[in-house]
Amino acid sequence: MTAATLRALHVPGHPLLLPNVWDAATARLVEEAGFPVVATSSLAVAASLGYADGEQAPAGEMFQAAARIARAVSVPVTVDAEAGYGLPPAELVERLLETGAVGCNLEDTDHTTKRLRPVAEHAEWLAAVREAAGDALVINARVDLFLKGEPRQVLPEAIERAKAYLAAGADCVYPILLRDADVLEEFVRAVSPGAVNGNRIPDTDLAAMGIARISLGARLWQDMREWFAGRLKEL
């Protein structure tokens, strides 16, 4: 499968739903259920390998896990590559393509400093990733402001970041954990016609809002973990 196949599925108003996986077995289940794309969750993959999220797992192990997932399915795979593991853009692209992935999620948090990268710096880095990848990778650029900031207060900077990332060559922008429907709608309008990746919000029609992609993140892994812990208590 090519990046063009994945890119074509990013249609505002007709969102691509991604139940994120963490190993080959869960990837096969997603494909068997009829989903056209498999996406990984860095938190869930790292946890399955025995590490915490936030680039605490060795990059090599994360890429190996991604390769096993890509080998297990025939649909396009997009990999949550966190903040790029400190790799130069060309090397990051090379290693992602070696896994068989045709897409990646890249966040603007610097895990060394635990702060967001300056917008111009991160946009320049994304542009270098795009140059190295050409059309071979669909880039989903994560905007991390809403992880800690009050949605209304950080919205202007989030829009600035999103526009800069799209201008740098990102195919889609992802205001992760923005669960205020009114603020999300404003964000979508502000970056239109750019594609936006959202998270599910109860009782909210994200398609009508113009969302192009919906990620479940680590939700299914968390549900599985809670179910497994409950069964263990019963036993």
Automatic annotation (TrEMBL):
Protein name from the UniProt record: Carboxyvinyl-carboxyphosphonate phosphorylmutase
Matching Pfam families: PEP_mutase
CDD domains registered for this protein in UniProt: ICL_PEPM
GO molecular function: catalytic activity
Record InterPro entries: ICL/PEPM (IPR039556), Pyrv/PenolPyrv_kinase-like_dom (IPR015813), Pyrv_kinase-like_dom_sf (IPR040442)
SUPFAM superfamilies listed in its UniProt record: Phosphoenolpyruvate/pyruvate domain (SSF51621)
